[in-house]
């Protein structure tokens, strides 16, 4: 059965891979990008199965207009993919106010506003699927990436809550958590804060060396085409998996982080319970 998808950030990376694979299998795609002409080759090959619109996702008014126009032109849209985003690297002190605002606006606020804009349409049509391209960086954190992690942890929290709100309307949600993949994210898709000498010998300076090519690149085990295929397959499932971890590095990092978080929580069990009011029944000892 032919399905219709709405995808942001389709000029490169996962957005481009998803668009190519979906069109190749016969689906329709409403593709948005700041440079929709980057999809001219796909338009020539697939004709009116590719609907295009220029969109800067940080322009909320424009986003709403594009969403409304896509539903008006295409009728039912089965899957919404929030994919547009980029990385902001550098120690928190090295980042400018404008860089911080732009990172949050693109990676976090725009995803929330896309959900808000599309939800009324999905409700009226009786359901659909929402795919949030997030990152394993929403489960783990590394130095010199604090603002990037803030947006990815933020969107995880948003969907933890909003997914339960949307479930009664037949709208399924999947948060996709890729590891490092062989896209242009680290090079062409990233922004660096100003370099402060105080951080030159630390993680921020090392990351700059990697991005500039002065140091060896980070391992990138993920194949973006395979990841895109897995994302499409998950949307074809009857029940939406809430999280989709992609890449061996993502699995190992998330597993280790969650184990450590659980260990730390359990270590603080007695202290947590000791702060209850006196009339609260004491819990059974651990292990019972």
From TrEMBL:
Membrane-crossing residue ranges in chain numbering: none
Keyword Oxidoreductase recorded: yes
The keyword Oxidoreductase is assigned to this record: yes
Record's keyword terms, sorted: Oxidoreductase
InterPro entries, A to Z: NAD(P)-bd_dom_sf, SDR_fam, SDR_oxidoreductase
SUPFAM superfamilies: NAD(P)-binding Rossmann-fold domains
Source organism superkingdom: Bacteria
Pfam hit, one: adh_short
CDD domains: 17beta-HSD-like_SDR_c
Family statement: Belongs to the short-chain dehydrogenases/reductases (SDR) family.
Name of this chain's protein: SDR family oxidoreductase
